[in-house]
Amino acid sequence: MASLLGKFPPAVQQMIRYLLVGGSAFVLDFGLLALLRSGLGVPAWLAAAVAFAVSTLFSFLLQRRFTFSADLHVGNSAIRYGFLLATNMVLTSLIVEGFDRYLDSYLVGKIISTALTTLWNFPIMKFWVYPRRTVSETAAAGETGADNA
Description:
Blueprint: H1 2-5, H2 10-39, H3 44-67, H4 74-103, H5 106-129, H6 135-140
């Protein structure tokens, strides 16, 4: 996989990693939801909450390391990620509700909200949630450039 990614410019490599992590988090969320609900008989609300929590943690950690190689302290990244997550949840709820109420098509609303959040999450994650410090910022802070996690 690394040799295949190496054929692309760094920005494209990062976008591919972002989409792979996001896609795998979706598969984990969906699969765990199905396993808990249909396989184990867990109530839907609890199965959805557990699956979402597990996939969110999975996504946070992999996006931090694999996609963005963040050097911001993990606690700071987690707070920022939580804010982004809460914002996305509110906007997704509004979009899905609007599509359900006015077009009787909540699934289309879910697809559109997922596409929109996928688009804006990449630059927000890259520059705000998981920022990389420049060499001069690291030197000014008196650090060696090692991860502060």
